[in-house]
Specification:
This protein is 70% helix and 3% strand. With 326 residues, it is mainly alpha-helical. The strands form 2 sheets. Strands 1-2 form a two-stranded antiparallel ribbon.
């Protein structure tokens, strides 16, 4: 009597083999456009919007940067790189660049530190956690103009709520908007507060995706809460931190205009320029108040070059400390 052993890897039938051969071709047929011009037709609305509102203004700005132009007079004179040489040799522009770098550094460092701390606390399972998270994210929903108006009323030297509180308790009423260093600190604080919600959203999502097994293993090994946060949580959040550093740099460079315009209008004067006159506000002053469109275009090109340099440095050296995976 013979024993029939089952075949572990039975040979597929001819029908199954034909189905396997035809499946990739069917998928490829469905994923390929039938007409040659159909993809470009679908992309046409996006390309038109980008061309009109992004590419054309960028090309126009590059062209204006090599002209001495005034929008009031209406004449243009080709000067080559004279605008760049004049701007880079200006003591006022040197001060504006230094102030901008200090401002961006403070906003990025303080913003990320406060955001990661608040996100870590908001991730705890406590009663009313959803309400706390909503309140933390709320400032980002405000426009820069509204946020600047709120801070202007709070820190008004005469009728502001902060000075009323300080006057009642300590008998002091600082001139927040008139003293250079107080004005600078006020703009930095307002900008950090405005961007907290954006950072907290990303950090909170990243913290909630940390595997529980990793945290439990660290706790079993005897790590203290601070050691778990410093040795486990921070390295796992490094990809998110790497992303947020760049987004916060760009936001501090460009999105601070609304707050500065409402709170201080670039002042008070300190040295050669206003202490809260940053690169984007100096560009606005030259282009839309002094009507020096050539100088403003030159500053826009230099700001673009600065952002490119920061991106290259970040991806060249910052990626070394990023840890991917649990």
């Amino acid at each position: 009597m013979s024993i029939v052993r089952p075949r572990l890897n039975p040979k597929p039938s001819q029908v199954d083999q034909e189905a396997r051969d035809q499946a990739p071709k069917a998928v490829q047929d469905h994923a390929t456009f039938q007409g040659r011009w159909l993809p470009w037709l679908l992309l046409l609305p996006t390309l038109l919007i980008l061309g009109v509102f992004s590419y054309y203004p960028a090309i126009k700005t590059l062209r204006l940067s090599v002209f001495r132009s005034n929008i009031i007079v209406g004449n243009e004179q080709f000067v080559g790189f004279e605008n760049f040489l004049t701007l880079l040799s200006s003591p006022i522009y040197h001060q504006v660049i230094l102030q901008t770098l200090v401002f961006v550094g403070l906003v990025v460092v303080l913003g990320l530190l406060f955001s990661i701390g608040l996100a870590w606390l908001a991730s705890k399972p406590i009663p009313g956690a959803k309400l706390y998270r909503l309140l933390l994210i709320y400032p980002y929903a405000l426009s820069p103009a509204i946020a600047g108006t709120l801070w202007l009323f709070l820190f008004n030297p005469e009728i502001g709520a902060v000075n009323s509180f300080l006057g009642a308790l300590f008998g002091i009423k600082p001139r927040w908007l008139d003293q250079p260093f107080l004005a600078f600190a006020l703009v930095v604080t307002a900008t950090v507060w405005k961007g907290l919600g954006y950072n907290i959203v990303f950090y909170l999502a990243a913290i909630q995706n940390i595997p529980l097994e990793v945290m439990e293993a660290a706790e079993i090994d005897g790590a203290t809460p601070w050691q778990r946060f410093w040795k486990v949580v921070l390295p796992l959040l490094s990809p998110m931190t790497f992303f947020l550093i760049f987004t916060n740099i760009v936001a501090a460079l460009f999105d601070s205009f609304g707050l500065v315009n409402i709170l201080t209008r670039g002042g008070p004067v300190y040295g050669e320029a206003g202490i809260t006159t940053f690169l984007v506000y100096q560009l606005y002053e030259d282009g839309f108040r002094n009507f020096k469109t050539g100088a403003a275009a030159t500053q826009a090109v230099l700001m673009l070059a600065l952002v490119v340099c920061l991106i290259v440095l970040q991806f060249r050296y910052g990626n070394r400390r990023v840890h991917y995976g649990a």
